[in-house]
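User: Run a structure prediction on this.
Assistant: Running it now.
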Amino acid sequence: MQRPFVPNTSTPYAAAGEANIQKAVREALAADRKRHTEILSLPEAKGRKVLAEQLFLSERSVDEIRAALAAAPTDARAKSDTIAKRAVANHRGETPPGQKPSATTKRVVAGLRARGFGQSNP
């Protein structure tokens, strides 16, 4: 039966190696924090914080992330709110915000209302 390898940490070389590892970890964490701050402070990150956070987790450079953020739409929440408002308006038979009802829509809504749809019964 073979015994597992256990490194000897009592030698001066092992202690120096551990100190170097700890130093390297501190430096890597500092560099990672600096990169995170740099990405979130980009002017292109304004209104795109969630995307900036996701791109930070990638291995892309700051310049690549800047280009990706510049190409992305700014306010995704406003877009999703508009989509939700349109869906609610369509469900109610109303004209979605920013659109004019088509002739077909007007005919369908008039037909549904004539049959009693969309009207509350007391």
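Residues 12-71 form one domain.
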